[in-house]
Amino acid sequence: MSSMVQWFQRLADGLRDRLAAGGAWWAGPVAAAVLLLWLVLSVLWGGEPDPFDVQGAALDRAGGRTERLVVGYVTTATLARVAETLLDKPGGYLSNDVMPPGVFMDNIPHWEFGVLVQVRDLARALRNDFSRSQTQSVEDPDLAAAEPLFNFDNDSWLFPPSERKYRQAVGHLDRYLARLADPAQPTAQFFARADNLRDWLAVVEKRLGSLSQRLSASVGQLRINTDLAGDSAARQSTRSAGEVVVKTPWLEIDDVFYEARGTTWALIHFLAAVEYDFHDVLVKKNARVSLRQIIRELEGAQRPVWSPVVLNGSGFGFVTNYSLIMASYVSRANAAVIDLRSLLEQG
Q: What is the pTM of this model?
């Protein structure tokens, strides 16, 4: 936001100089109105979307027909709804904006990126795992088309804009949903199996683990290098030091924080959808409580941020550290994911 303030200051200084040199009398009021409009839009567009009920959203997509909520429908519909939220929230998709005020807003674009990474991961799991019975089975054509579209550049503003590709991907998800709910088209399937769910959770585990480390590095840490731990025959490309200093650059602390906010927001919805579609699997493994604990921890990461800036005090200093608080929720959610994967591996 500091770049936005500096830009406004330069614009105001330029207008003042012009008026002093005899510029048009209306330049000042018009400039003030434009600046006020941009500030108002920055506030309106800077808010994070509210959570939504995944079953209700899926039912809306099914036209209110409960019989269409077959296995996999809620998960796929939730993926489509989360992707649409990126595009249709107040201000629309901001990551590729080149005009003010969007071009000066960096918190929401990083929130969008966190959501987008989870959308891409789930779209890949749908294509490679959930919709296929065996490794030799044919992939679904709509999911095969949607997954690369979601992986299009997130900051392309023209030729084509990112939004166009993402809407095309949502269109393919809708076509897959229509076939999935149609008994006359058995080629579209969603297999709610423990191994499929475990594979996707392995990716979630890695994403949360990385975020936790990046958030914790807001205060800087001297870490023991454990890259090759646990395997005496392990090797790596180049040698690295036994101790590594890890610290997130000061200007990137709020970026990582809001990326984590977007990640946890998306995962809350995806896990709620998984609880619906994988109900029988979770009951058999006695794992529903573990999944709900993950959601509970992620919901803690969504508590309102009352400070206009992401505070970055030392661990036990006078000023709080928002990144460490976020890291605590993310780490506990990650530990619960590990426990859930262990339960799913058991008979």
A: 0.89
